[in-house]
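1st attempt posting a full record on here, be nice pls
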Amino acid sequence: MVDDGLYSRFGIPKPDVVLGQHVFCLHKAGAVAITPGPVMTAIDGLRIRVFGKGGHGSMPSHCIDPIVIASHIVVRLQTIVSRELEPGKVGVVTCGKIQAGTASNIIPDYADLQLNVRSYDPKVQQHLLAAVERIVRAECDASASPQAPVIENFVHAPATVNSSNHTEVLTKSFSSYYEDEAHAMEPLPCSEDFSVLGRAINTPYIFWVLGGCDPV
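the predicted structure (as tokens):
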């Protein structure tokens, strides 16, 4: 919406603050939860293609197996968060898709992976993305891949970080209305592109969740 001219083409006045809410099953229906500062992580979705040299499965010595390359990449990616991030820093690197080949006796020419990278801190985000690229390229080099890997960032949204001053005002309002059902919200590892609406015009924003579960 912003790229299409939400604030420029359609005459939408610049708001003083941008508000967003979402139904979420963290609390029972009729409750609300809000917090200042980090609320949801940034997200980067990566498409990766690594290349090998295809051939018959009976003659792997004549091939370069991209499935082996991809497998080493997936294992090595697990060390980014566990071995490179400082304690207390939040980061997630998930390989949600790996696809290669068409038959059990054929070594394919390439393998595809899709990764999901999440973080609250922009410095951590850059560290994670740089580490992913470093590992992918290094594993391809280690296996003598005939072609450089292709790495595409196809999904991106910044972290959602609530304005502390505005959140304090809204928290008081929620507490007076919801009383005991107004809760402090723990930061979520999921992501949302809502913050773009405020970031695009340098305007503070607040995001909170409404309970959506039946009472226990």
